[in-house]
Amino acid sequence: MDLTCPEDRPVAIKGLEARLTQTFGGEGRFGVFSEYLHRCLLWKRPGAPLEPIKVFPSGPIPSWSWMAVIGGIEFIDAPGSGIDWQPDVTWPLSNNKADDMDASSADLSNYRDTLALRLNAPVRSLVDPRHEDIVLDDGSTMIPELTKCVVIGKSKWPANDEDKTCYTLIVLPFDGHSTGVWKRIGVGVMSGRHVALDESTPLVCIQ
């Protein structure tokens, strides 16, 4: 991650990503692996605010990838054996054949495919969220208006949903309005009582 030019990350990681997918199986995209999608999404800043990278020569990078920011990251401690990963959080689609390209190639044309940028997931309202349960990428402790969350996983115990621990992406509308496309702004680990788990929500895109 410590490159002279941070915007070179997609090219620098592509060969390693391809080798790792041979081991893991599935697909790799933007430093995230389909076989471990839910775990890979739960990254956070360890301390200092993360600075977004504004322009990538190889094409846009989605907000849910650590490649989109400058700064070190770490992953939330999420014990897999005790978590029900949510099946309605799904891997991005791609409508071209560029995913089959030579792993050594620096051609990232598949990353320019809009579908390849988009996770599909339901977005849920927050219910009186506590700022200490949320880590925003920009270091802020103020939760913006229109903030919602995507539940990536829930603890298996206790039986009552409102007492479960929810592992979440914190998201905002991509263009500042309540539309069908959202962006990641942080992560949260919170009690189910702070998430509208019973809310009926359509699938949206996280880009």
Mean pLDDT, all residues:
86
- Helices and strands, in order, run as HEEHEEEEEEEEEEEE
Low-confidence blocks of residues: 95-112
* Count of extended strands: 14
Computed Rg: 17 Å
Describe the structure.
The protein has 207 residues and is mainly beta. It has one domain. The strands form four sheets. Strands 7, 8, 9, 10, 11, 12, 13 and 14 form an eight-stranded mixed beta sheet that branches. It is globular. The two termini are 21 Å apart. The relative contact order is 0.17.
Secondary structure elements and their pairing?
Blueprint: H1 9-24, E1 28-29, E2 32-33, H2 37-41, E3 43-44, E4 51-52, E5 69-70, E6 74-75, E7 83-85, E8 119-122, E9 124-125, E10 134-136, E11 148-155, E12 165-173, E13 181-191, E14 203-206
Parallel strand pairs: 13-14
Antiparallel strand pairs: 1-2, 3-6, 4-5, 7-11, 8-14, 9-11, 10-13, 11-12, 12-13
Write out key terms for the chains shown:
globular; mainly beta; 10% helix; 27% strand; two-stranded antiparallel ribbon; 2 helices; eight-stranded mixed beta sheet; 207 residues
